[in-house]
Amino acid sequence: MTAQWLVLLLLVPMLVVPVVLLFGFAGCTFAPGAAGLSAPTNVTATAKSISEIEVKWDNPNSEPVTFEVNRLKEGDQTPVPLSTTSTTLLDQSLDEATTYFYKVRAIRVSDPTDFAESAQVAARTTGLAFSQTLTTDQAELEGFTLVQRIEPSRLRQSTIPGDILTPGARVQITIRGPINGQLTLDRIYISQAALSGDLYDSHTDIMSITSGVMIPPNSSVVLPLVNYDLDRTRPLLIAFDISNSPQRGSVRLAQGIPASEATAFIQQNTTEASIPDRSPSAANPGGSPYLGLTSIYLVEKIEVV
Known about the structure:
Layout: H1 2-28, E1 41-47, E2 53-58, E3 65-73, E4 80-84, E5 88-91, E6 99-108, E7 115-117, E8 121-124, E9 127-131, E10 136-138, E11 145-150, E12 170-176, E13 183-192, E14 207-215, E15 220-222, E16 226-227, E17 236-242, E18 251-255, E19 262-267, E20 291-293, E21 295-297, E22 299-304
Antiparallel strand pairs: 1-2, 2-5, 3-4, 3-6, 6-7, 6-8, 9-22, 10-18, 11-17, 11-19, 12-15, 12-16, 12-22, 13-14, 13-17, 18-21, 19-20
């Protein structure tokens, strides 16, 4: 009898321990704890206007989540939460020329206390340097070079300090086409006015903005950002070569602008938007000078990023 009990005492642990291990550890796989959430990835913030910033991100999670975008304005200490179920947020009603910082949280739908937060990104709303309502159409300017001169009195924003792209601020110009008719611009250049010479001659900082721009009727077009340091103490020139294709030379303008604020200069049968010393130049002393008009052509808005 003693031997039988001894055998049982030896066998029971050998049978019980494997069973516990089998059903205990194996049982954990049937009811696992929730896996940790992943933070949103590829988060970007991009200024869209003087009052809007667009925040975008990717969602690496397969289970249902909502998002909270925490916005912090420069100089503030308390972030503002903005909720969304999308992976894009257009943040509106912001202050002009101001930096905002963003972090994006992915929040578990089944347990809102569980979340994962992204790294911080920043963007700065644009500063409005110039604006003008254009009221009048003018047709048949095919083949003209048009130089719009804007005086310092109309440039309300100088270079914005802060996290801007080296070597200077970025400038973005919005131009407007005619109510009726078509417009194609072969070349568009930006510069300060030359220190000497004619009022429509460019300084050595002349820079290409873009080329081959087609503007549908009654539409505005936002030109590409350019790395250009806008100095509001100097007159600004924006030069356009208008296509000589038939019926592609209708423009939009505002008339009766004081010469102390802005002047437009036009010359037919030239392609001189990219040429600093425009005719009559040293190379073309017999050329006709540009015709000056107290108007603002094409340029609806200038923003500094």
